[in-house]
Each structure stands twice: as structure tokens, then as C-alpha cells.
Amino acid sequence: MTRTTITRKEGEIVGCKIVAVRPMTNHEIWVFGWDEYKGMKGDAIVIELDNGALLVPSRDAELNGGGQMMQAVPTDNPDDQPEGMILLHMFVQGDDR
After folding, report:
1. Which domain, by its residues, includes 44?
2. Total structural domains in the chain?
3. Which residues, in sequence order, are CB contacts of 10 under 8 Å at separation 6+?
4. What's the pLDDT at 7?
5. Torsions phi, psi for 91 (to 5 deg)
6. Residue 59's CB: how many other CB atoms inside 10 A?
7. What is the CB neighbour count within 10 angstroms for residue 22?
């Protein structure tokens, strides 16, 4: 088995651009071992960066399935919770073509 060494520079994501936010492919779900979890095809998402890296949220530190993303948007309304933020749940819809 060939092992690839990733340098700190290659693993850096600061300054990278997001090029896509999409559902995981069946192959990616299989690679993560999430094919045994019912519903992963619609739940697990990938954030692709312009350096080829993939950011994949997990439901926990043990990688027991795909996780959900939340977006916190700053607001000037003091009634928004948590203070000064509106929380938006990010859903990714697949293309069934």
C-alpha cells in the first residue's frame, strides 16, 4: 500500500474557496462506511474546496454517519438567539438526473 504524505501547506484550508456543496456520492458514502446507515444518501453532505479537499461533517467524533451543517448569520436584532445570530439549517438537495 502506498502512503501519501500531506504537507502542512497542502492540508491548509484557509484562503481556499468553496466550489460546491453537494450530497455525498454513493461511493463516498461507502468509503466512509456509512452505507449501512439508512438515509445517508440524502443526509450526508460534502463541501468541495478549490484545492481538491473535501470537508465532510460527521454526526460525532467516531464518524458514526453524516452530520448536518448550521449557518450562523450575524444580526443587529437583540431578540435573535444566540445573541446577535440567526441560525439556519443547511439542507442540500441532490440532483436526480
Report:
1. 13-90
2. 1
3. 51
4. 59
5. -110, 140
6. 15
7. 16
Nearest to 67 by CA among 85, 53, 95, 47: 47
Whole-model pTM: value is 0.67
Residue-wise pLDDT tens digits, 54-81: 999 888 888 888 887 777 778 777 676 6
Quote the mean pLDDT of the chain: 77
Cis peptide before 57 (omega within 30 of 0): no
Place of cell 439508512: 38
Q: HEC profile for the chain?
A: CCCCCCCHHHHCCCCCCEEEEEECCHHHHHHCCCCCCCCHHHHCEEEEECCCCEECCECCCCCCCECCEEEEEECCCCCCCCCCEEEEEECCCCCCC
- Kindly give the parts of the chain with pLDDT less than 70: 1-11, 39-42, 78, 80-83, 89-97
Counted residue by residue, the chain has a size of 97
